[in-house]
Amino acid sequence: MVENFSAMAFSYDSRFIACLTEAPEFRLVFIDILANKKDVAGVTLRIPISKVSISPKDNHMVAISG
Fold first, then answer.
1. Domain-by-domain residue ranges, the chain?
2. Which of 32, 33, 28 shows the shortest CA–CA distance to 51?
3. I need a surface site. Which of 19, 20, 55, 57 has the fewest CB within 10 A?
């Protein structure tokens, strides 16, 4: 299954990327660029989300909205 990304955000220090996929899954994927791990965290939301951002003060705090 090919997934298209609808939104993406980099952390302030450019270490992390948060990505949202499009319907029908609306999956949130949080990636640590510097680690050898492809997928730090991933969750299927199944609700329409269109925006993602990472807090500039805490890289592990992610905000999503539709």
1. 5-65
2. 28
3. 57
- Residue listed under structure tokens 């949202």: 20
Are the beta carbons of 60 and 17 closer than 8 angstroms? no
Please report the pLDDT score of residue 22 as a whole number: 86
- How buried is residue 23: exposed, middle or buried, by Cβ count under 10 Å (0-12/13-18/19+)? exposed
Structure token digits, residue 48: 């329409």
Cβ atoms 33, 15 nearer than 8 A? yes
Residue pLDDT, tens place only, 12-60? 998 899 999 888 888 888 888 888 766 577 888 888 888 999 999 998 8
